[in-house]
């Protein structure tokens, strides 16, 4: 855990503030790669993940952007309540949304606050002079953040802005996604509906799953408890210990209650922190971290939200 101070808080758009964080002891921050995020601990056990959006070479600050979500469970409200001089704890950066090395071409799609990791990717690709295009979509000019920064950047000519209230600027996904060639990679981040649309259009245009990369900010409906959830059993391969998982508890909750150490962060199947190998049984995947192909292998699952289709799962724990 790292103690950091909010050195700058800036309104970037309607409902969006950026926060610049620096270590309280003045030591340089850990380096990070484009697409990385940090965990921010906001007290009372509240932990949220925010993508880093400053240039990856910077070590004097981390910058994040936070949208005040009307349906907030407390995270964005707590962040927006912070002021310059506030001290919070964060994790070191982790990257679960990394750029593919040696890509022939990269297409970046951002919806709303999903621009935060995408912006960092654009900075990095521009720095190494790699071919890419950025498509940034929002409801209106007033609702999207970091516009001035994009317009003044070295990649301004490769950035395309699309607004719902300006029909002439709306995204033509068919045209943007045409011409796939082996070695092309696509990255998308934003609201669930926006991401589902971009990914589906890419598949229709012939993009293979291995070239599609996404990062979610919120859980899908199936990630939460469902009325017909039943109980099942998990067994630890190392000791043979078995635990019953009732319908109203997750695997992670049951394991933690029984003293089994399990890394957790988002607890919504988004970040992949708790990804665990499955040796026997068939998981009921409810995460958004793995691709459909990875889920189909049934050799790992996210115990924070996923369940079991079989009476027992044997875990590599």
From TrEMBL:
Question: Which InterPro entries does this one have?
Answer: 2Fe-2S_ferredoxin-like_sf, 2Fe-2S_ferredoxin-type, 2Fe2S_fd_BS, Beta-grasp_dom_sf, DmmA-like_N, FAD-bd_FR_type, FNR_nucleotide-bd, MRET
A biological-process GO annotation:
methylation
Query: Where does the record place the FAD-binding FR-type domain?
Result: 1-100
Q: Where is the 2Fe-2S ferredoxin-type domain?
A: 232-317
Could you tell me the superkingdom of the organism this chain comes from?
Answer: Bacteria
Q: Pfam families from the entry?
A: DmmA-like_N (PF22290), Fer2 (PF00111)
Keywords associated with the record: 2Fe-2S, Flavoprotein, FMN, Iron, Iron-sulfur, Metal-binding, Methyltransferase, Oxidoreductase, Transferase
CC cofactor = FMN
UniProt GO molecular function:
2 iron, 2 sulfur cluster binding; metal ion binding; methyltransferase activity; oxidoreductase activity
PANTHER family referenced in this protein's UniProt entry, alphabetically:
CARNITINE MONOOXYGENASE REDUCTASE SUBUNIT, NADH OXIDOREDUCTASE HCR
Q: What is this protein called?
A: Vanillate O-demethylase ferredoxin subunit
State the organism of origin. Answer: Pseudomonas abietaniphila
